[in-house]
User: What shape does this take?
Amino acid sequence: MKNYADDVRKVLDENFDKFSNLADYIWEHPEPGLIEYESSKKLMEFLKDEGFEIENPISGMETAFKATYGNSGPVIGFSVEYDALPGLSQKRGSATKEELVPGGAGHGCGHNILGVGALGGAVVLKDLIENEKLDASVVVVGAPSEERDGAKTFIGRDGYYEGIDIMLTWHPESKNAIWNGGSLANIIVTYNFKGTTSHAAAAPQLGRSALDACELMNVGVNYLREHVVDSARIHYAYLDVGGNAPNVVQSHATLYYFIRAAKIDDALNIYERINNIAKGAALMAGVEVEINLKGALADFSPNLYLSGVLYDSIKEFGTPKFDEDDLKLAKELYETLDDNTKKAAVENMTYLYGDELAKEQIANHIATELAPFDGKYGKMEVISSDVGELSHYVPTAQMFLAASPVGTPLHTWQMCSSAGGSIGKKTLYSAIGSLATCGLKAALEPEVIEKAHEEFDSVIGKYEAPIPEDLKIRDPNIES
Ligand SMILES: [Zn+2]
Assistant: This one.
């Protein structure tokens, strides 16, 4: 059998510097969701120079794009993210918490290498298609604001995933593994209550409190918790409490809800029930309620067949290889984790790797081996990601590669430090190589796409976006 990884490595080795520089640029320009202006511009310029045709903006988002190379043969897709997190500015390669820009944003989820890793996979595959005159096409979809807005839901609803045969992506993590567990679907919604103000002592009978409605709604939802699926997670925050004067009846108040469950249908069902509770609360308080759906995203449904192909590709190309300095930094960063985090890391690593291999990874302070994958669904990641939404449009596989010490949580200064420095570069190399190897296999062996679609048709079938046609994503210039 042909070794695709060798072909990929040849092209990647010739080009790795430019990917590495691109990842540095993204890390040095950390921009939170929907304002990734510099990052998205740079990525689009890069792809344009590589011969991709760019569509931008898409779905009304200036920082979202679709880049296409070729117009025949199988269409291999790569999903790219590049948003940073507010307040996570951190010096790269440092084992102490040191802000680079006081109060600034930072790549605490490693999306600098996530984005360039997936983009690199696409570009290397494009080079191979070009060099070998293969009949295949490559598509890169750049989706902003993974962290908070679920942009892929809007991109999917608007048809930009149509025509893509398979989608590949990855996430920097503290382990090397296939993401074969799901993730939680999430419905994001605000409830705006409007009542009538009055003097709370002199004329309480004239007041209709929007704040009362919020409190009644939350009580109702807290009773609902007993009668929902186990996987459900319902959280709320007050966006507006109607003012800070107890002696004024609050005429306005707003609640912000996340409604999550292991399956999108369950989340939507709970959402409908919570809407009824909101309406009931409004009726009780004698106020009006406006329900504003902000976004929604499905659970991640990994395509197991395609995940198996990706797993073989990581094995063929190889997991990240770290040098002495990387291992030293990994040890120092690992020491900054608290005992509970380390304990959870042992449990997690043991679940994934089995006893012996887990011990070895922990002793190294950073994962170097690939966790075994048996082709079955694994334990759900109790988080939400809009890759879930994407996985309902296109057969999707994603992997984790270690870009930080064992047990490092995402959204931390440690991840920002690690993924931005030399460790992240080793991970980037492996990510590009593994994704390109998988893409090349899918481009050359028709059964990859056939089998992935067979599974997709039986597990997902036809999917309808969980948001209405006219819903627009948050305007970053108006809403924070
Ligand atoms: Zn992330």
Remarks:
- The CA atoms of residues 78 and 140 lie 5 Å apart.
- The mean pLDDT is 97.
- The chain has two domains: 4-182+300-459, 185-296.
